Amino acid sequence: MAFKNIICPVCGASCDDIQVELRGSKIVTKNACKMGNAKFWEIFSPHRIREPLLKESGSFCTALWDEAVDRAAMILVKAKRPLIFMGSETSCEAMQVGLHLAEFLGAIADSNSTVCHGPTAMGIQEAGRVGATAGQSKSRSDLVVYWGSNPLESMPRHMSRYGVYPRGYWTRRGRFDRTVITVDPRKSITARNSDLHIQLKPNTDYELLSALLTLLHGKKPHPSVEKVTGVSISEMEEMLERMLGCNFGAIYVGLGIASSFGKHRNAEAALNLVKELNNHTKFVIGALRGHCNVAGFNQIASYLYGYPFGLDFARGYPRYNPGEYTAVDVLREQDVDAALIVSADLVSHFPAACARYLAELPVACIDIAPCPTTMISQVVLPGVIDAMECDGTFYRLDDVPVYFQPFTGSPFSFTDSNEDTMKQIFQKVKEMKR
Ligand code: SF4
After folding, report:
1. Which atom of ligand 1 lies closest to the CA of 37?
2. Is 11 near ligand 1, meaning CB less than 6 Å away?
């Protein structure tokens, strides 16, 4: 059977034109990039977790669903300060249940943006953002700046679907109507395909952004900026001239900005530069979000509780202080005593000290395949793959909500979706608390 307009649940591009054909236990996709295609194959992966697992005396044994949900709820109820980590490869609906559960328990709630575009979200809180939908940029932008990002490898269809190659209403000749600038210390494949590559020294984004703002104000930056950034003032002038000469410019920032020295101050400087460029021409800025629904947690948490990530409900109301209540920090400080981890492999991606401490805690997780985090967990609940096996909502990289519908059903009789699993855990927690 063939299905059209399926949403890809891998990266923030959330491509909505995937065609899927199921041929017995094989799956054929069209339009998906390599990353997307690999994800669709997970439906039939022999590694898929198909039964609930409980750890007894150090080794896993299969368990009944109710037993596993009971144990996951018990871990949370017994904890004084649990961490609920909602990974970004799950729907906004599941995230919403996770946030409500965290509020009910007085827990910490966090998501992947804590280790990716969290600083960009903080920069937006400081400076505001002039943004646009991906469709607007596709139709209008005649200049694209990839700053600290390498979409040809991290978001393979961004350039072809939204940023550079598509023919828009005002960019009828596609790539020929666009100028591409890449700001990156590396000669990445994106940089090699750009019209101008600004090869700054690592960790000097703030200085370069400040120098561009100085030039924009009609002044010359101090000559030392050339030595600091490795970029000559004439190159900066050339870049700024191109930016001022366009009709509609779009900057896409990546983790090169959010993770280098300066962090949220880099994002704030970039956002301020874009604001000021709007005195001369139309300019927008957006983040290339790596995971499919990493923007979703920011949206849902902000909408429900006013803060985009790293929320602490210990006092019964939400508190927000990145560096204190964020997942890496509470694990490093050994400030939580249990964890529920949904669709995320924290042990592989967090610093070693955090992973080591996590391994000492009672942990329940929901995941589709074995990974280091499932290995350290006491309870493993099989995950349902969003956008393939259940419906729901993702937020795309431009913060546009995208409703997805499945092309097949949940492979389990005991749960319809990760949202359903979260609801069952929440229900059990409420019963136990009573
Ligand atoms: S670019 Fe991203 S969303 Fe689009 S097909 Fe590739 S992995 Fe999926």
Report:
1. 5
2. yes
Angle at 133 between CA 130 and CA 137, to 5 degrees: 85
Q: 251 C-alpha to center of ligand 1: Å?
A: 20
- What is the tens place of the pLDDT at every residue in 36-74? 999 999 999 999 999 999 999 999 999 999 999 999 999
Pocket residue to mutate for ligand 1, from 5, 7, 11, most atoms within 8 A of Cβ = 11
Residue 107 CB neighbours (<10 A): 26
- Measured by CA distance, the residue closest to atom 5 of ligand 1 is 32
Dihedral sign, Cα of residue 394, residue 396, residue 398, residue 402? negative
Question: What φ, ψ does residue 340 adopt, rounded to 5°?
Answer: -120, 120
pLDDT in tens, 98-146: 999 999 999 999 999 999 999 999 999 999 999 999 999 999 999 999 9
What are the residues whose beta carbons fall under 8 Å from the beta carbon of 288, sequence distance 6 or more?
12, 146, 149, 151, 154, 155, 158, 252, 253, 254, 397
In the numeric block, which tokens belong to residue 247? 């009709």
Q: How many CB atoms lie within 10 A of CB 355?
A: 18
User: In this structure, which residue's CA is closest to atom 1 in ligand 1?
Assistant: 157
Domains of the chain: 49-115+296-433 (3.40.50.740), 118-287 (3.40.228.10)
Please name the residue whose Cα sits nearest to atom 7 of ligand 1. 36
CB-based contact 427:434 (threshold 8 Å)? no
The residue whose two tokens read 């599941």 is 94
pLDDT of 187 > 90? The answer is: yes
HEC sequence for 351-390 = CHHHHHHHHHCCEEEEECCCCHHHHHCCEEEECCCECCCE
Q: Would the CB of 365 count as within 6 Å of ligand 1?
A: no
- Mutation choice for ligand 1 from 14, 16, 157, 394, CB with most ligand atoms inside 8 A: 157
Q: Is the pTM of this model over 0.85?
A: yes
The two three-digit tokens of residue 385, written as one number: 């793959």
